[in-house]
Amino acid sequence: MTAARTASPGQTRWGIVTLAILAGVFAAMEIGKVPPALGALQTEFTVGLAAVGWVASIFNAIGAVLGLPAGAASDTIGNRRLVIIGLGAVSLGSLLGGLTENFTLLLLTRALEGIGYLSILVSVTSLIVEATAPKDHSLALGIWSTFLPIGFAFMMVIAPPIMDAIGWQGLWFVNAVLLAGYLVVFVIGTRDLANLPNPRGSTAALGFGQSFRAFTMAGPLLLALAFVTYALQWFGLSSWMPTFFTAVQGKSLVTASLLSALVVFMNAPGNLFGSWLLARGWSQWSLIAAGSAVMGVLAVLIFGYTVGADAKFWLALAFSFLGGVVPPAVFAAVPQHTPTPAHVGSVSGLVIQGNNAGFLLGAPAFGAIVELTGGWSGAGWLEVAVGALGVAIALAFRPVEARAARG
Questions:
Q1: How far from 341 is each of 1, 141, 194, 199, 348, CA to CA, in Å?
Q2: Which residues have a Cβ under 8 Å from the Cβ of 383 and sit 6 or more positions away?
Q3: pLDDT of residue 206 exceeding 60
Q4: What is the pLDDT of residues 220-273, one digit of tens each?
Q5: What whole-number distance in Å separates Cα of residue 359 and Cα of residue 407?
Q6: Fewer CB within 10 Å, N side or C side of the chain?
């Protein structure tokens, strides 16, 4: 019996919610496979660090440009259909990437993976909203926000032994098989999804151009900007943790990778903590403000000289955990700030676009400030500046959230 058949109308379809969230986890593994493989890719294709860095960054570039159009596509052609297309595209891209011997073609296959990844992300948010009762929106979307740290950290841990056994191409093939297998599971598990209540009422399909209304509304724009600052803070630190642990603290690469994976993973329980705080009555703006401020303060201690080396790791864990309250607040706000129920995908796409813009800027911004200031302490003060901007965005969002709550 499929997940859709196990729940009666009007109730939350937790089976479908689980399948949707797992689609995001499997997709996020495509991000996590790259950092451990960068050295092997640089050797294989004899390219510089900047060039090989695009194997990771092109994912974020795709999302930073195409987030809202992808969300509009989800609203227009259907969420389940776009998740299926996305899983297929990511699997195919990983397979072709493992077969290529040309660096330019590898980048093109990563672009294909990025388009599939983006398609999954913007569709899952809408799918979860459709499959949950209004009282469960915040909880379900809060759990959904854990997909990135779980998939990212899991693949960072298992990628090195896979590469030791069958090389980076084998790692790409393994990911292709995993995505293809999950595609089958998702198709079978959601085959009755058409029986879910139609949030669009009598409207069969939303005009593509109408979806861009999200760009004209304060709520979606502020949520997207909040995700820019969050992603810049969190990914900026996370992406440089392996380098920081090796270059500054003298850790081995294996140890640094494991410690960094733990830092990334700690964001997941932080997401759940944020979801719990929302259920306890915390406002969305207050979580965005608190997470932004705390990340800024902790980053100064992590990259500064006032605490010992051993304490920095624990502070990094706290940074990732407490910063994790921001994504559930943003995702929970999405269905409350849509022009109509049919625009959830569009607003989700705009928010994901902001998230990817922050991811795209995070690592280069940190690298540039460290070079400019001649030390890691500059990265901490960059975090403070971005965190202050995040607090300002949260304060601007406060009256918008209040108006939405009043209906």
A1: 29, 16, 17, 6, 12
A2: 233, 236, 237, 295, 296, 299, 300, 303
A3: no
A4: 899 999 999 999 999 888 777 777 777 777 777 677 778 888 888 899 999 999
A5: 33
A6: C
What's the CATH number of domain 11-196+209-406, 3.30.1830.10, 1.20.1250.20, 3.40.50.300, 3.40.1280.10? 1.20.1250.20
Query: Which tokens belong to 228?
Result: 């820019």
Cα dist from 407 to 336, 337, 338, 342, 395, whole Å: 9, 10, 12, 17, 20
Distance in angstroms (rounded) separating the CA atoms of residues 16 and 79:
12
- Give tens-digit pLDDT for 165-195: 999 999 999 999 999 999 999 999 998 875 4
Cα–Cα distance measured from residue 337 to residue 215, given in angstroms and rounded to the nearest whole number? 12
Span 360-386, pLDDT tens digits: 887 777 777 877 887 778 888 899 999
Tally the C-alpha atoms within 13 A of residue 395's C-alpha that lie toward its C-beta.
Answer: 7
Separation of alpha carbons 40 and 115, rounded Å: 24
